[in-house]
Design goal:
- It contains three helices and eleven strands; from the N terminus they run αββββββααβββββ.
- The protein is of the alpha+beta class and about 200 residues long.
- The chain has a single domain, classed as outer membrane lipoprotein receptor (LolB), chain A (Clam).
- It has an eleven-stranded antiparallel beta sheet.
- Strand 4 and strand 5 form a beta hairpin.
- The chain starts with a helix and ends with a strand.
């Protein structure tokens, strides 16, 4: 997927969400699958328990691609049994991802473009937040992950694919800047611990 297609999908989903008003049950599509990865594309499916703790975050995400930006709000919950991510655009829920027992379930607004893939979101989430040893153990042959000085670099066959920078020692309490060099997009994620 090119950066222009990613951006078009995100901007289109924002416009459609604004026009659609409140989501009705008939507008939400739910599907669950243990989908095989697409050829040449990394897909991480680490267990929720491998994160090693329970965590609830409120996040603001800025997506930049092809010279344009889009802003999203998200709520992330990680427990030893389940990962749940709820994405909001203009105050409306446009995506809910749940990952448990090897199954990724997506409930998405019917107008959310197919280019916004739950499997890609889960992969970026786990690359950014999971312990480095757990991620390395799950990487297929040819993929490597370096982790030093508040920075992670994912490479495939010696070529950098994704660079993740943190502005503090605790990944989920810092600003995360994720640059995907392969698909030419950037995410800047500001997180705050959710109130109990």
């Amino acid at each position: 997927m090119t950066s222009r297609r990613v951006l078009a999908a995100l901007l289109l989903s924002g416009v459609l969400a604004a026009c659609a008003g409140a989501s009705r049950p008939s507008e939400a599509l739910a599907r669950c699958a243990s989908a095989p990865p697409q050829p040449g594309r990394l897909q991480l499916t680490l267990s929720p328990a491998s994160f090693g703790r329970t965590l609830s975050l409120q996040q603001q995400v800025r997506i930049a691609a092809a010279g344009h930006t889009a802003d999203l709000d998200a709520a992330l919950d990680i427990t030893p049994r389940e990962i749940t991510l709820v994405g909001l655009e203009l105050g409306q829920r446009v995506l809910t991802l749940t990952y448990a027992n090897g199954m990724l379930c997506e409930q998405r607004h019917s107008r959310l473009p197919a280019e916004v893939r739950g499997a890609d979101i889960l992969t970026d989430l786990q690359l950014s937040l999971w312990p480095v040893d757990a991620v390395r153990a799950a990487l297929p042959p040819g993929w490597t992950l370096t982790d030093e000085d508040y920075r992670r670099v994912l490479a495939h066959d010696g070529r950098d694919v994704e660079v993740i920078a943190y502005d503090g020692p605790i990944r989920w309490e810092s600003r995360i800047t994720l640059r995907n060099l392969q698909y030419e997009y950037q995410l800047v994620i500001h997180s705050a611990l959710a109130a109990p």
